Queue: 3 jobs
Job 1
Amino acid sequence: MKTLALRGKKVLAPVLGRYFPEFEIKSGRGCYLYGTDNKKYLDFSSGIAACSTGHAHPKVVAAAQKQTGKLIHICIGVANYAPYIELAESLAKIVPIIDAQFFFCQSGAEAVEAALKLAKYATKKPGIIALRGAFHGRTLGALSVTTSKMKYRDGYEPLLPEVYIAGPELDDIEKLCREKNIAAIIFEPIIGEGGYLVQSEELVKGLRRLCDQYGVLLIADEIQTGFGRTGKWFAVEHFGIKPDIICLAKGIASGFPLGGIAAAAELMAKWSPGSHGTTYGGNPVCCAASLATIEVIKKANLVSKAKQLGFYLIKKLHQLQQQFPAIKDVRGLGLMIGVDFQDSAMVKRIVNYCLAHGLVIIPTGAEGTVVRFIPPLIVTKEQINQALKIFTAALTHA
Ligand SMILES: Cc1ncc(COP(=O)(O)O)c(C=O)c1O
């Protein structure tokens, strides 16, 4: 066993799931990671869809370094500071919510907690509907709406009361809206940890219709799908609907720990001052990194690039499917693509082969039967071809 892995075994809680327990890196730059074995790895994991502008993008590094020299922390509860306000102003121009306001936190799960709390508080109703197979995070509230893997919940029940797991049939969801006191429906436009399943337009539009009909808030969890990854700034835009609350994290700050929620000012006005809060949420350095991330995404047209390269990658993967019947399905939007093998042992062999040959690519799905392609949005066609070459060799050897 290698040095860091061996030392970690002694001092780290074994609860952490690891895709590659022995993989050790020294640094990252652009789409590459550099191993302690002095090997260069092409990273198609992006730190689980977080490093949208790649590793250590010079603009993000410069913005974070400059901010670190000025102010690391104060807490928005203590004083206003420019990066927090500027980030909210900048996001207001890109989120698909009119007259949006923001609350910032540190992670995806915390963004989900904030969304659930806002929904309950503003509607004065207790019920939450979550879609079957969704992943929304590991904190107890977020876990209550998570069913992508039941092992996430085992040992932690009882969780939040009045959470109803339903769908994908709209009739079931409508029955709950009619019979229970529902504050909100939470959903992922593309089920992420549950296997990269793109929701149907019928379902997403149906959720919006039910919410309007029954006075329920619609929460879109865009933690994995947001910030250009799917070829639109936010994946809900593919479905032509506007949610009431959007959960943000991951790609928002190129790997800095930042999350947040967006909702219209009219809804946010119902959340009384002090009824939610945080010490570090919207930390100045993370906000500066996020502002730089948004600038990089805009200047380099990374959203439309994700769309074009996504088409290219999905086309190539469909061609591979013709050649390798072990591939049961290829699906996704933009640079969020899943290759379904319906065989977790095979997926393990494939990702391990890829790692040994210089490509970091990770599984997803309830049983780990799907390989996911989520490169940084700065990825080039040449790097995609390089990844496909290694992936094809893995398929031959799997
Ligand atoms: C859709 C979705 N929601 C919530 C989360 C939780 O985010 P975090 O791990 O930052 O708490 C994730 C993380 O994978 C996610 O994919």
Job 2
Amino acid sequence: MDEYGEWHVGDPIGFGNDVGSPEVPYMGYGPKKREEKDYGASPEEIERNRKDNTSRTLRNEAERLYDAGRYSEALTLINVAIENVSTNANNWNIKGNILDHLGNYEEAIPCYDKALELNSDDVIKHNKAATLVSNAYRLFLLGDIDGSCLNLGEAFKIFDGIDDKRCLDQAWDLRAQIFIRNGDYGKAFECYKHALEAVKNDEKLRSEYMQKRDGLLKYLDNEDGTTCPKCGNLVPITDNFCIRCGARVKHEYKNKKSESRSLYSDGVTIINFDDDI
Ligand SMILES: [Zn+2]
């Protein structure tokens, strides 16, 4: 490459022989292409444009590798993209997605935070919520219940503010498992009701959560339900509303006194969630 020319994609002379070969673009040597905005720009602006272009090219390539499941290579490229432009929300969002797929949730979350500082976008918010749920599962399996609850609580807060509820059912499922661990079967039962609401269009998941929910009935004393405060109808604990008058019914769950309980009530920390379920 010299001062006057460079190689670039396409036919610089205009014979049209770059047409019709989509897989391998024709490379031509010709006068250096300048971005329109480079004319009359200061050296700093030209340098910034150059970095913007480099960052964009690397990001596109990182996305391509990400889509192909080549996460480690994608990570290398997006890191260089960020070295060039650290103020692009997409760069950080994609880095978060790559780290999430590598199972590195703890590093993915601050990437989404950086992305959200630059652009408070619902897609990025959802990505962060989904990663928080994955991290909560990871910590739960490691026995770090407090850490798991912190991540879960943050995820629920995000889900409250966005329309995309994918993964919300998994959050409820995990919260139920934490309650079960603490011997709080009534609250776990309520969690599965929420999980069911979150997957109302997915028959397979619905029956899965229904099974988990109803599996808890053997630990609960009030299987018959609660009397509707408005009309006296008996509302089964699987329902949140009275079928006769439509009143909302809050069930008071009591654990059954049974040997199976002692399996769970083994002195684990009592978890307090912010919201009332
Ligand atoms: Zn009623």
Job 3
Amino acid sequence: MKKYIDLRSDTVTKPTEAMRKAMCSAEVGDDVFQEDPTVNALQEYAAGLLGKEAALFVSSGVMGNQICLNVLTNPADEVICERDAHIFQYESGSPAVLSGIQLMPVDGNKGVITPEQIEPFIRPTSAYYMPRSKVIEIENTHNRAGGTIHPIENIIKVKELAKKYNLFYHLDGARIWNASVASGISVKEYASHFDSVSCCLSKGLGAPVGSIIAGSKEFVKEAFRVRKAWGGGMRQVGIIAAAGLYALKNNIERLAEDHQKAKMLAETIAEIPSLEIDTASVQTNILIFKPLKISVEDAITKCKAGGLLLSEGKVGLLRAITHLDASFDDIEKTKKIIKNVFN
Ligand SMILES: Cc1ncc(COP(=O)(O)O)c(C=O)c1O
């Protein structure tokens, strides 16, 4: 079978030997009875890292975001988010299906929405004929904007706006680890501004499955109920929680390498006239770039023939994501393939 350098996503990583060993030797119990010691250890460790009272292990980032939104809202409520937010673009319309709520997308810049942009979209409480604004959501790093970091000053300003209007504040921190390593701001500092946080173990951190949601004890108690109601109560799930715990303890700091790899690729791409890239947007492990002479479909096919897998970002854009299974050597090879295809 042909071996590809796979930069379609940071979700394609496979567990390392050491991670598999941790999974193999995990102590397990029935997590629906909250008796799986490895799940409990993961939740406690993650809550500590995030500086929250409690945390809950869930199967995916989508499940994490959607449980959080469900707990924070009632049917017919509205969640304000950026137009390119994952919850708006990529979660299969599940806010409507699972919680009976709607999203209010606001145009942003590189994934960032400011209080000035948000405030006009907050519904007046006197308007009984309108949905109720209930939550403001932001994403950090921002996937569709190209892994951009949400500035902490804006996170704080939006929190103040949320407080002013008595709204909850949710963080889709699928890649909060990348934001933290690149900005030097701790995940605890980021998380401290939000009522609820969702973050992935199975992206840059390299675990095969799982996400964490965190918040107050009361919030997590309700999230536990919703997870069960949605069929997410699993039994001897310590087998996979062990991978998540291993990832949190071993794979955060190394994300800096992935960011370095992304910058190396961005430099090469910027030198190719038939490609367009905003290098200032390459802040973590995601690269979004535009083929100017061929279609995205053709570009993906040609790169594949050369041994490189890329994916489509927004319409007309290519996406590459660096991760722990793409070595520096692979990045050198990637540069060559890109030069061959696009020069
Ligand atoms: C920002 C963001 N949030 C949530 C998710 C959903 O994660 P999952 O694929 O584990 O459901 C993703 C996945 O790419 C993401 O990029």
